[in-house]
Amino acid sequence: MSILASSESQDLSPVTPLFAGSAPITTNRAAGGANVNLAAGTVIALVNDLIVAHDADAVNGSEVAVGILTEALNTVAQPGSWAAYYTGGDFNHEALVWDAALNTLALRRAAFAQTDTIKISAVK
Fold it and tell me: For the chain, which residues make up each domain, given as ranges?
């Protein structure tokens, strides 16, 4: 006998949508930098063609945001790991993992000002 309905309930947390619009979604892949442990949705930079967390105050190349991780990346546990990242799309700023200094929509948009393929938006 199978049960098709149940009186049990689940408390499902609301999901924050990643995408905010209909801009074309594009991706790329790269290896992670040394000792990188980043969550999916992290805003990233490439330093010497290796993925690192974006750091708005840096002067080593990591101050230039180039994408958003599609998956977690942990080179601490797995040195030499590669990951895919978004290089294009319209993203909900609240769904992303940002440098702590970028705490407003305006600052977050400015992080991607050098690219015309990534838009940062608010979802209402």
Answer: 26-121
Top CATH class of 26-121 equals: mainly beta
The model's pTM? 0.89
For residues 84 and 32, is the Cβ–Cβ distance under 8 A?
Answer: no
Read off φ and ψ for residue 32, nearest 5 degrees: -80, 150
| pLDDT tens digits along 53-68 | 999 999 999 999 999 9
Pairwise CA distance, residues 97 & 102, whole Å? 10
Q: CA–CA distance from 31 to each of 9, 20, 39, 51 (Å)?
A: 42, 27, 15, 6
As a whole number of Å, the CA-based R_g of the chain is 17
Contact 102, 108 (CB under 8 A): yes
